[in-house]
Design goal:
Elements: H1 15-28, H2 32-41, H3 53-67, H4 70-80, H5 84-87, H6 89-105, H7 109-120, H8 127-138, H9 156-173, H10 181-202, H11 214-230, H12 234-241, E1 246-247, E2 255-256, H13 260-268, H14 288-293, H15 295-298, E3 301-307, E4 316-318, H16 332-341, E5 364-369, H17 377-380, E6 383-385, E7 396-397, E8 411-416, E9 419-423, E10 428-432, E11 438-442, E12 451-453, H18 456-465, E13 486-493, E14 499-502, H19 509-516, E15 534-538, E16 553-557, E17 584-590, H20 596-610, H21 613-616, E18 619-624, H22 629-644, H23 658-667, H24 671-678, H25 680-685, E19 696-699, H26 708-723
Parallel strand pairs: 3-6, 4-7, 4-12, 5-8, 14-16, 14-17, 17-18, 18-19
Antiparallel strand pairs: 1-2, 3-13, 5-11, 9-10, 9-13, 15-16
Helix pairs in contact: 3-4, 3-9, 4-6, 6-7, 6-9, 10-11, 10-12
Bound molecules: guanosine-5'-triphosphate and magnesium ion.
Amino acid sequence: MDVDPRQYEHVAVDDNDIHNIVMSYLVHNCFKETMESFIASCPRMKQPSDYPEDMEKRKRIFQFALEGNALKAIELTEQLATNLLEKNKDLHFDILSLHFVELVLSKKCTEALEFARTKLTPFGGEPKFVGKLEDFLALLAYDEPETSPMFYLLSSDYRQRVAESLNRAILAHANNPSYTAMERLIQQTTVVRQCLNQEHAMAPTRLRLSCRSRPKFHVFRSAWIMASLVSLPSTSFFNRRLPNDKLFFGPLLPITTTARTNWVSTKFGFLTIKSRLTKTKESPSTNPTTLLKEPHKYFDQVIITVRSGDGGHGAILSMPNQQRPAGKSQGRNETKEKAKKKPSFKRDFDGSLILPLGGHGGDVIIYADEGKDTLLEFHRKSRYNAKRGGNVDAMGVLNSQLRNGLAAPALRVPVPVGTVVKRKRGKLLADLAQPGDEVLVARGGQGGISLLEMPQYRRKKLMSLTTNVMRDESDKVLILGQPGEEVSLELILRVVADVGLVGLPNAGKSTLLAAITHAKPDIADYPFTTLMPNLGRIDGDPALGADRYSSEATLADLPGLIEGAHLGKGLGRNFLRHLRRTRLLVHVVDASAEDPLNDYRTVREELRMYNPNYLERPSVVVLNKIDLPEARDKLPYLTEEILKIGSDRINSEVGRSSEDIQSLPTEVGEADISSSVASDEDKMDKGLEDYPRPTAVVGVSVLKGIRVNEMLKEIRAALRKCKDPN
Ligand SMILES: Nc1nc2c(ncn2[C@@H]2O[C@H](COP(=O)(O)OP(=O)(O)OP(=O)(O)O)[C@@H](O)[C@H]2O)c(=O)[nH]1
Ligand SMILES: [Mg+2]
């Protein structure tokens, strides 16, 4: 049986069901006149039990609550449902809070504070109300509470929610259903839709329902139609009406969302999902299989979101009662004792009171860690949240023991050395080119300050003593901790290496790296063995002693290039950007191949098309595999021919020119595009012959260790030139 309800339009819907649905809606919402007309047109419909007085009262209560006239609403509720609010503390608090909000909105802060102290703070004995209390009282700290983080408490939405809860509670108190049939249907529809969506996501296909029980399916269908009829945003409706994680489904018991799927299948007994057609497209960056299969596409670029911690809240404190008991002083000893007991508050150098502060929220710092190679892990976890600062210990009386809230530790996120950190589609924040380089990307929220509230008659005196006292109603104070920042960042890895190994697949680049460094790259005789750059280090030239030329250099073995790589062929151009930081290119050519000269030209051409600057850099050509006879024979000819390609011009930029380094920040992100655009002229005008020829061509067999030392010598010599052009 198909899921589309249009297939079942022939199934009759009982008029009585529809009438009952409409009736329950009218009763619930106290639409008295409409209900009377409705009953007149449907003689079979009965009047509700609370009609008409109670319904009238209920309507007024609802209206009072909506208008924020909470005291009147409470008074009427007491008449209609005695003890209801006494039993339902949450509801009681919510309704009282409406009055508090009204006072805040009409800028009657002193009254609001008084009301909070007498009516709301008694709820603070229960921990669940403490947070709520803090939120409400925080409204007092703002000149314009509508723009405070607690603005929603002032919204008509909040009043509506409280009014509805009150209405439901009154109905339930009189043993009437607290939800309308229409709401139930929408809830049912929502659950069914969600289940279908979940199943659909799990087994992406065309859905089919098998219907074992037509009457039950009928319920489902009505729900579907009703939802379409009322065309309400059912999900938000559903979320708004239902507390927390509970679902109220028809006349049955509440269930938790985790049990939802099972529950629905059991209750309906007809959901059978079979999969056939469309596949849901999953984000490649979050799919581990994709990451494993195509790491080269993701290892060097990722977008993450970080959020620094909110600041901890301050507190509203009152001065301890220091009034002396009536009567004369009773002797010297007692006076001394009292003097001892007198609390000693922390004071500033000028005598002003120091009130505790909320803890600073955790910052988010990104730092370069030598232990990291790629950005792949950020595709699996792309969100990082620092902790919030600690609150000042609850509210209460000022005492000398009160401490600042604890500052949250900074969240430090390690990334590979060479990572460039940018705002998503925004400016560059840092180029973490050295191990240990770090950048603060999101600053934790500042902790809130505390307030001292005091009776009017003492205010003047205290004001002269402290700089941190609430001075008047319009005083702007920050009792709430400031929210942390959330930023989306783009991380771009630019491998940091002095030497870049380039060449066609299978030329022997990884074998070369393994031969002269401690790196252990994958080596195999099939193309594209290397998917991501491998790094290794060569020691400096021992012959030169401990001077600056003996320092080690880093080599990056890049994935193989093929013709059209700059257009995305093979592994594409993604990794070509990793040559940007190199000073020297070592071009590895398989001398045993059919046409090594052409291979050489192909790779040079690809480099030129990607970024002609690369060809301006010094390069050493390594003719590899000379242990094979076919390579050995061609060696003199190849050396000669290769040296012919290129000009004698001395590089205007040796290695990374300062221009290149300086331009790095602006070209990051747009690097590939900008380099391509910038190079358009060069591509047209210059041929390979116009770029400097290699500084050396060496025939080697890196596998058999033939002439490897000579090759190393040439590489070091070229590196020396890069460092010291003179
Ligand atoms: N005979 C001979 N074979 C070699 C030599 N160097 C490398 N090879 C072989 O060539 C094949 C390819 O070597 P790799 O080092 O994986 O080549 P690559 O350039 O890194 O290849 P990709 O990672 O695919 O770009 C392997 O089978 C090596 O054993 C050499 O000097 N002589
Ligand atoms: Mg390789």
